[in-house]
Amino acid sequence: MNTYPADRAFVRAAADAVRRSGHIAISMEDFPAVSSLPASFCQEQVRECDVYIGVIGFRYGSLVAGGLHDDAPAVGTASATVAPQEDPAGGSRPTAGPPRRTAVSYTELEFLTAVESEIPRLLFLLHEDTPIPRGLTDRNLDLVDAFRARLRSAGVIVGTFRTADSLEAQVTRALTHLRRGGEDDPVRFVGPVDPLDPADSVDPADSARLVDSARLVDSARLVDSAGLVDSAGLVDPKPIVDVGGDERTSPVPPAATVWWRRRRRYVIGAAVLAGAVAAGSLLGAGVGRSGSSRACRSVAPVTALPAAETWVGSHSEQCIGFSDGAYTFDSTSPDLVALLTTIGRQNAAVAGKGGVYTVVVAAPLTGVHSRPGGVQADSPTTVGQGGLNELRGAQLAQAAINAAADAPGSRARIRLLVANVGWQSAGALTVAEHIDTVARGDPGLAGVLGLFQSTAAARQAVALLSDTTHIPIVSSTASDDGFTLPVGPPGQTRRAFDWYFRVGSTNRREAGVIARAIPEIMKLEGRGDVPIRPLIVSAGVVGDPNAPGADHYSDNLAQDVSAELRRLPHAAPAVLAPFPTSKQAASTSAADGGPTVPGVLGHALSARCTGPQRPNLLVYTGRTTSVSILLEALAGSGCGRADPHLPIISGDDAMELETDPGEIAWSGQGGHTFYFADFGLAQPGDVTQSYLEQVGPASPVPGQWAAQVRGTPQRLISGHTIVAFDAMSVLARAIGVAERTNPPPGQLRANIKTGLDGTCGDGALAGANGYISFDRYGDSTSAPVLIRRFDPTDATVRTVAPGTIAESLHRPTTATADCTVL
What we know:
The chain is an alpha/beta fold and 822 residues long.
């Protein structure tokens, strides 16, 4: 399973889950070949770890020479004895040790060592009916079948999988639940449970049993240093490299470090994965966060840059600032590092060529993890997923634009300067101040892409860049209506931010699609309840609306959805429930659910679910990173107990689930069906053939998108990605038009703004995501919004309401668009 399936091996999928859960995965190249290792070495590596994850296929693996060593854990009576031994792969082997001595593979030895060491064990077995090449199974399956049987009866819950995506989702949920549990003393073993197969049609509440055992183990530990041992001899690994250290050099923030230290001293780290084709590998992982207490220092850029464009700094224990691809903001995320490396190569490729213009991509690329009590702004898994999707869309567009510029004829080329604005864009204003400094010294800085979150800090950044810097800003998904609402007295209205343009939908448009989809959702749920009784949970501006993390998107969307629901003929007035902050929860009495956020929220939900007319639908307008807390609160509330299958529909922030399905921990949280609004036509079949034929060669953007994503795994593409691709494309077109006018120094950005103002009606751009047509306030009036259903059992999405797709794929005209420039 190290090499199969070809597009993404099972072990890679499990490793991705470890990384997305905030840990560092150590690949098998970090260990010497297993044949050169004594069994004691492998056992020692296991003992240094704190979680064992078994990914088990149909090869038993290389046998330990000489059988079990004297210091090895004893094998239970169910273990086989062999003398002489036959290689399970089909060949012959010398007798393994003295007669009647128990012989095991390195894989089983590692598992037994985990048992002896009382390390939490999470087991995932490849389903028996999964089609795999004959060469990846033992000819004689007796040993591996017996091993799989022993695992099923090992006193821990076992999951089964058929696909890499399903495995990744299960491992992510298990690790997330393991981190969130452990408040009580651990009970290390549970009775045997039949293996689950989330790929089959099972009730979500049943499939949640997969990680229930995570509650029963000591979750106050993570693993620091381990690696991958190939017990099947499939690779030629290199010597081990220790990625960890002791607690004194840990990148874990102090508050989180205290949380993970409850009962004993331990080394910091993450998870161990036992897998590979022979079900015999170890994959270690370590905690990875950006910044922490270390100084943030820039590195030598890929290309020659002015000093102002190499600035980095520290904000909330994160490294923010600029990178042309060389600096990784001290992040350990392999996805971010890979993206930055690609952008660095693309930037280097245009160095020295003519017509190169710089675009800053400002996005939240790092962050913090959840802490005890459930901080609603913290992520339970990988941080910065939205930022990664924004950056990936920009990178794909940069590749397409620069490839076209290399064709005959003069066309603008793009150099990307990546700007990390930190978790929830809290560092956006600081970054904007430095963008302003760069703009004053670099006439080739053409525009800003991103700033897609609607937090107070992001709005302040937009205000600075629009009102002071006068640089074009093209945002992808910042749906807060406040960015583009007209200001001023009637008859004298003007734009809120003259230099701001938005490709994605507004909250008003999104709320209308959500409301109109609810009757269809209720039918799909088999609920004939009339009237619809919605409960809206908002997680936005609480306390100080000017605080950097104040989320105007959430409250704004909640208000718009509430207004749109009043238009439905069979909908009762919406009941609102605020999402408390950790500070509020800490000061709340136990009688009202304090001092934890899930407790206070659960108490508030229970208060709104009394009486016979309980809510029959929950609308959530907060961030997806807080859905796990919502589910926990719901499970313990009167709402969840009375209706454990209460459907949930969320806003567009949840489209990040298309690339990070493990962002929500579903285990043990009921059987709630989850729907969300999506701004992007990025799933196969979303864009119609008639649209592509209508566009033809007049607009190259749809074809460029198709060429860039051809061969890219769908799991890397979300609605956010395609919207960011279009945002970069429309900005690049305006840059190209401005360049051809040979503007005098200081006039380039104004000409680019003029080009964006003219992207309306007949001048609309046919993008990969439909037509882009900006109205007088900078909104794309044809932005698509549709409703999808997310299935956590196999991490798939499907469309349940097409929303405005048809409108978005219909060519606008100046007669139908509001193209007057204010």
